[in-house]
Amino acid sequence: MLIGSNMSVIIQRSIFLLNDKTVLARFLKELKQDEKDIVIPGSAEFEMQRQEKITIPYENMNPQISDLFAKVGMLEMRFSPKVSNSQSVMDEQWKHVLFSDFTAENTFGLDIEVAPQSATSFHEYKNTSFKAIKSLEHILKVCSKDMPIFYQEWFQKRNFDLDEKSSLELIVLRLWNAILARNTEFPVRLPDIACASSVDFVLHNKKHEASITLYWDSVKRPAIISKKYVIQEADSISSEIAIFMSKKQAMSTYDPPLTGLRMKLNNETYNAQNRIIKFLPTMLHASQTHRTLHGYHIKHEILKPVGMHPDYKMSIVEDDKRSAFAPPRSSADTQCSLMLQLSVPKQIIIDKYELERLKGKLFKDFRVHNNGMNLELPEYRVKEWGGALSAVLDADYIMNRQNESFVIPLHLRYGKPLGDFQETYIPKAQVYWECSVTEDKQKEVLAKSFYNEPDRLGIDKFVKHSVFYHVRDSDRLSSNSIKVEIPTANLKDAYSNELWTSVLVALGTIYILISLVKPLS
């Protein structure tokens, strides 16, 4: 919780998810509190997931920033460092979607999505979007020349090739220091920020506030919620810390109850003479919009040899023979579609004409988002950041094929003649079931879900009353992207080819002229 003098309340919500119920008693015994800190013991024995959400009203922000945010109203920025293949894979249980849809997406790098709510024309919509994206890139010091692309019904800008200096810690602190009206310390310790797995920045249109959410895949060190940020006697304080226990036997269900402890901080409890803040029993019924499809996982790979026409292969692997490759249906009226979302950098082309031959087989329907980019241009002549593919897959076609796999054909653009291979990375595709919700009671439950963010942009933004079941990645925690080696020409060969081409053209021209002159003589 962080309060500055003469400022409105900035709310901090901390969630810790305890992995193993067998250590719960020892965990509670080691839970320490004093006047300075609330220590959440984290270690290899007490492995946890963690989420920190800090909510900031517009009136707390720098006026120039808040004015822009008020015009935009709906914006989401996500940053996730590229995961190294050498990172150890954690317990299988952590691959389930628990906190939000963010953990279900195989994204890396910087992703900014904008859908201005105040625009009265598409021209204004476009200009406001570009201004918001440029402002954020300037704040984060990760500006690139690539243009955003209109993706379905909003503008999207991605940056896959951030330098090593653009760490998650720097991204968070630059954003925090820029949007606040005055210097205020971030309410999470720097070592904790440095080991976070991703950060999410969302504008909430109806509430006129923004939120910064940090995610940790696991916590293996003590996590400290420092009280030094809340010693502001004159201000109201609003903060909540919750520790939930995940029961392994409940993880196979789609609506797992999470039991645990919750502690609220406010002026009255903090200013009490004893200053002992107790954790009280609590329960969370996690009816999330985004869930994990149990019983299956998906393997992503680029088939070799790559050449100039790589094939992106996805193989669906069965984990449990008792599970069908289909989500549960709440009623007979529930309609479900198997969906694919794939984003690629500008070095790679998704050719809609090439994909047409898969329509009626692999694809029931699809759409390529690339703003009509010229497919013949070399990579260094393309202004846009890349393109994307949205598709409705034929589940029967996939599951009836041998090895339950399918291939998406891609094309490589010509790059600068470097005489070697150029490396680029593709965020792994998302494969998920999109199911309609027909019962009024279930719609109400989903709308009030503890995890759901109504103003988030993404696959669910323009699909009302739907639940998404993600087919999890087989190695999401060891790699969130696929490397592609793009062959490039050699400049020496280019000079030689140009010389021989010029010589042959000259000889051909001379031969044609001589042939034309002979009949005249």
From TrEMBL:
Keyword Iron-sulfur carried by entry = no
Membrane topology note: Single-pass membrane protein; Single-pass type III membrane protein
Alphabetically list the UniProt keywords.
Endoplasmic reticulum, Glycoprotein, GPI-anchor biosynthesis, Membrane, Transmembrane, Transmembrane helix
This entry carries the following GO cellular component terms, namely: endoplasmic reticulum membrane; glycosylphosphatidylinositol-mannosyltransferase I complex
Question: Origin, by domain of life?
Answer: Eukaryota
Which molecular-function annotation in GO is an example for this chain?
mannosyltransferase activity
Indicate yes or no for the key word Transmembrane helix.
Answer: yes
Signal peptide segment: none
Protein's GO biological process: GPI anchor biosynthetic process
Pathway recorded for this protein: Glycolipid biosynthesis; glycosylphosphatidylinositol-anchor biosynthesis
Q: Where in the cell is it found?
A: Endoplasmic reticulum membrane
Q: Which PANTHER family match?
A: PROTEIN PBN1 (PTHR28533:SF1)
Q: What does this protein do?
A: Required for proper folding and/or the stability of a subset of proteins in the endoplasmic reticulum. Component of glycosylphosphatidylinositol-mannosyltransferase 1 which transfers the first of the 4 mannoses in the GPI-anchor precursors during GPI-anchor biosynthesis. Probably acts by stabilizing the mannosyltransferase GPI14.
Annotated family: Belongs to the PIGX family.
For this entry, the protein name equals: Protein PBN1
